[in-house]
Amino acid sequence: MTEDHPTHIDPSAEFRARARIRDRADYEARHQESLVDPEGFWRRELAGLLGDWQQVRTGELPHPRWFVGARLNVSERCLDRHLDTPLRHKAALIWEGEPEGPQGQVETRTLTYFELHREVVRFAGALAALGVGSGDRVIIYMGMVPEAIVAMLACVRLGAVHSVVFGGFAAEALSSRILDCGARAVITQDGAWRRGTVLAMKSVVDKALESAPVDHVVVLRRIGETLPVTMQSGRDLWWDDAVDLRDPTRGGAAVQVDGEHPLFILYTSGSTGKPKGVLHSCAGYLAGVYLTTREAFDLRPEDLLWCTADIGWITGHSYVVYGPLANGASILIYEGAPNAPDPGRFWRIIERHGVSILYTAPTAIRAFMRWGDQWPGKSDLASLRLLGSVGEPIGPEAWHWYHRTIGGGRCPIVDTWWQTETGSMMLTTLPGAVAAKPGSTGLPLFGVDVAVVRADGSDCAPDETGLLVVRRPWPSMLRTIYGNEERFIAGYFAPMPGFYFTGDSARIDADGYVTVLGRVDDVLNVAGHRIGTAEIEAAVGTHPAVAESAAVGRPDDLKGQALVVFVTLRMGQTADAGLREAIRAQVAHEVGKFARPDEIRFTDALPKTRSGKIMRRFLKEIAAGKATTGDTSTLEDLGVLAALRAGNAEE
Ligand code: PRX
User: Fold this and answer.
1) How far apart are CA 648 and CA 642, in angstroms?
2) What residue ranges line ligand 1, CB within 6 angstroms?
3) Which pLDDT belongs to residue 651?
4) Considering only CA atoms, which residue is closest to atom 13 of ligand 1?
5) 521 CA distance to ligand 1 centroid (A)?
6) Ligand 1 centroid to 419 CA: how many Å?
7) Given CA atoms 506, 270, 325, 405 in this order, what sign does their dihedral have?
8) Are 194 and 336 in contact (CB under 8 A)?
């Protein structure tokens, strides 16, 4: 029931009194300044973060250059910069492993800024000894362990470009990423804890390297003797041995690079089968994540920030690693699943460590709702002062539950909209400045100029649904798709000339609040994972029984969207439960278990236009059990729809 919920929630007087930005007028003034006087704005707000630079920006969309003249090393800006300050021995990260004993016995590690810096310098020395240098690409395939962050920052220290691949990806997906970016080395671990079991990781790497060889593999021992791994001599090294082999005389000198030097590549799903390597650059990205971490979380020196995203996704890059560390904040990282060993785990973690900011995804919040209030009820959550949400729309129901049950009614919630491509948050409600409106994301962050437009590019009226675009460059925007500039232009700039096209539809209310409604392209958001329908179809198509397939999303209470695949079979194949399972397993094998379809529906034919294009709109309606709406005149064979519906009725 949502009727009795307020539609506006103002920050409390207490929160507002301590906030960095305390009212809408102040927010508006600064936002305006960030657009009309970016030079003055960024110089003041970044306060030396990037060192010296001459000009805030040259060039327009799609190819701006930001902070022209900056020379820096992002690992220095995140670490060394703090060592001569009172932050030197402050916790940079607090880690908790997954296994938990009945009395709450857990393994934890804390690394201060001094210690994290030392580990990064050592590991950078190890990579340098293996020949990794500026511009080289390195794949990081690890779970949530401190060394994953060490590995990222060590690459950056050398000017090398990391590409973190989420540990849930299968060997096929890993090898295609290794090949696409031409990686020289892979950094991994023997295995990782996940929901009470050990996931083998090194063996997945071994499999991936059969078709995508690299020079070096560095393996962290996380699990130890119980998980035997094969080490290929000449190629594979244990992490500790690699560190021992470094040249200690090389010191920790960080390679200074131009502000536009690539920082990392992160693969994400688009509307074709091949994932795209979103490329971010050093200075602009760091500026964006630094400022948004500080302002959207209204960061205080004493905060402990827990962003629950895996470092394999952009949220983990920006709000576990770069944004918080650039600000000298303390972060918490947790290795495992939210319900290991039971659904109270998150709340015990918050109590145990005194987490003050929790940043998580609606799909997790909906799962917690379902597991029941008794779980958070067992822990003391009084240390929390701010909550965040990211990854998909958080509907009013989940918003209010989060606010009341986790936030005790006292913590503002920032619903942040952004993308892998935007690098940092673009829309939210600054927590001390403006009211939150559950269901609506909020207002543009600094330097961000968004609009909702019609197909012809004209502005929509208030509350009219249209396409969400960005009208001018912002510092942390992607610079290109690695090795595929055409795809960069075609995907983001060709659809709406003059603008960056987000792929989302949205509307803006009379008050300026943006409500993001979802993707208009062939990208799904399943349990917070961004999945391209074409990627799934390509994986389904590798099963020998499959003739053709079409993947669509259907609304799902828990996952946001569930993945439904319509499949036609080759002649002579029998549609049965065994085949259904085999196709699901095939997707897990090709992409990863997280992408396994929720439902496989066999059909004799797929609805197509006369030119042979699959009409996904109809399939979506059928998957959702809705009546067919809209124009069916371009459909080649209307009988197909009837047959699909009949199939639907049987299930
Ligand atoms: O559709 C939007 C949705 O997630 C997409 C971006 O996915 P990804 O690149 O994986 O990045 C997710 C984490 C930043 C967007 O195009 N999305 C993200 N945040 C929100 C959202 N939809 C609604 N509200 C949000 N707060």
Assistant:
1) 10
2) 268, 314-315, 390-393, 415-420, 441, 502-504, 516, 518-519, 525, 530
3) 40
4) 391
5) 13
6) 5
7) positive
8) yes
Give the closest residue to 13 by CA, choosing from 445, 440, 410. Answer: 410
Distance 588 CA to ligand 1 centre (A): 23
Taking 70 as the pLDDT cut, the residues of the chain under it are 1-3, 251, 633-634, 647-651
Task: For residue range 366-411, list pLDDT tens digits in order.
Answer: 999 999 999 999 999 999 999 999 999 998 999 999 999 999 999 9
Q: What span, in angstroms and rounded, lies between the C-alpha atoms of 543 and 536? A: 12
3-state helix/strand/coil string of 361-391? CHHHHHHHHHHCCHHHHCCCCCCCCEEEEEC
Token code pair at residue 52: 């010296």
Q: What share of the chain is helix, strand, coil (3-state, %, to 5)?
A: 35, 25, 40
Helix or strand holding residue 452 (H, E) = strand 450-453
Cα-to-centroid distance, 258 and ligand 1 (Å) = 30
Q: Taking Cα atoms as reference points, which of 363, 357, 257, 234 lies closest to residue 305?
A: 357
Alpha-carbon distance of 39 to 526, in angstroms, equals 40
Report CA-CA distances (Å) from 94 to 32, 110, 354, 577: 38, 4, 11, 46
Give the pLDDT score at 364: 94
HEC string of 236-258? EEEHHHHHHCCCHHHCCCCCCEE
* Token pair in block for residue 465: 């649904």
Q: What is the largest CA-CA distance in the chain?
A: 75
Question: Residue 533 C-alpha to ligand 1 middle, in angstroms?
Answer: 16
To test the ligand 1 pocket, which listed residue (265, 390, 513, 524) has its Cβ within 8 A of the most ligand atoms?
390
pLDDT computed for residue 24 by the predictor: 97
Residue nearest (by alpha carbon) to ligand 1 atom 4: 391
Amino acid residing at 467: L
pTM, 2 dp: 0.93
Give the Å distances, CA to CA, from 40 to 46, 53, 55: 10, 12, 10
Looking at the CA of residue 309, tell me the nearest atom of ligand 1: 13
Cis peptide bond prior to 62, omega within 30° of 0: yes
Polymer length of the chain: 651
**CA-nearest residue, atom 10 of ligand 1:** 530
Q: What is the pLDDT of residue 251?
A: 67
